[in-house]
Amino acid sequence: MNDGDRDAQDLIKLTYDKLSADAASDTVLCPSCGAVSMFIGTTRNNFEGKKVVQLEYEAYIPMAESQLKKIFCDIRERWSTVRHICVHHRLGVVPVTEASVIVAISSPHRVQSLEAVAYCIDALKASVPIWKKEVYETEDSTWKENKECLWAGGTLK
Amino acid sequence: MNTEVLVLYFAKSAELAGLKSETISVPEELTSQQLWQELENRHPRLSAVREQVVLAVRQEYVVLGNQRVSLRAGDEVAVIPPLSGG
């Protein structure tokens, strides 16, 4: 459509490095887009009265990438004007207040990318094979379970 | 006929099994429940998560049950505890 635009990009990065919101939003910029919508997930310092000192993430990396690509396909079907989609997810130790996930999506007008970002993070939590362990001040830890995951809680819905 | 597959363990299941991966010999045709049983036989502590896991065979999720699974040499099988990405 626009000569200045790249082909639609699906960008995935799973990294042990600190994430950058600027870097993520830069990857989805395009001249014909008036909107970049983003979600940043950060490490919260408490859970049920316990003080959280860090999260530790691990991933089934090749399948996490293929599941994200499926989500991106679904996004493009439902929100047809979405231009570029970017998900950065950190692995390993993520200290409190640092970002563990960034979703950035561009579109000509804001409604589509705002909705697509919300869908993307919900779908990621339901279907992408990544796990986080919450480590508390007391040095014990828990493997967390997303309520979006169909097999959490012991009953497959 | 048996075949050799690579089993990957993640999160809680890796802690219970005490390892992250291993190659095992299993029947080429079996149900997903039988495939899980092969893993539990080798690592009895996995029984603690039996009600909360699914498997991924060639990177597709498979619920534990009567679903038939066809395995080929070198296939990847992963134990998938409840997800907590994002």
Write a compact overview of the structure shown.
The complex is a heterodimer of chains A (157) and B (86). In chain A, helix 2 (61-78) packs antiparallel against helix 3 (110-127).
Write the layout of secondary structure elements.
The complex is a heterodimer of chains A (157) and B (86).
Chain A: E1 10-15, H1 21-28, E2 35-42, E3 46-47, E4 50-59, H2 61-78, E5 85-90, E6 92-95, E7 99-107, H3 110-127, E8 130-136, E9 141-143
Parallel strand pairs in A: 1-5
Antiparallel strand pairs in A: 2-7, 3-4, 4-6, 4-8, 5-7, 8-9
Chain B: E1 2-9, H1 11-17, E2 21-27, E3 29-31, H2 32-42, E4 54-57, E5 60-62, E6 68-70, E7 76-80
| Whole-number total of structural domains of chain A | 1
The helicity of chain A comes to: 25-40%
Q: Give the quaternary arrangement of the chains.
A: heterodimer
Radius of gyration of chain A from the CA trace?
17 Å
Number of helices, counting only DSSP H or I runs of 4 residues or more of chain B:
2
Global shape of chain A: globular
Mean pLDDT of chain B: 97
- Estimated structural class of chain B: alpha+beta
Largest interface: A-B, 35 and 19 residues
Strand order of the largest sheet of chain B: 2-1-7-4-5
The name of the CATH superfamily of chain A reads Molybdopterin biosynthesis MoaE subunit
What is the string of helix and strand elements of chain A? EHEEEHEEEHEE
Distance between the termini of chain B: 41 Å
CATH class of chain A: Alpha Beta
Along the chain, the helix and strand elements of chain B come as EHEEHEEEE
Strand content of chain A: 35-45%
Beta-strand content estimate of chain B: 35-45%
Helical content band of chain B: 10-25%
Major pleated sheet of chain A = 5 strands, antiparallel
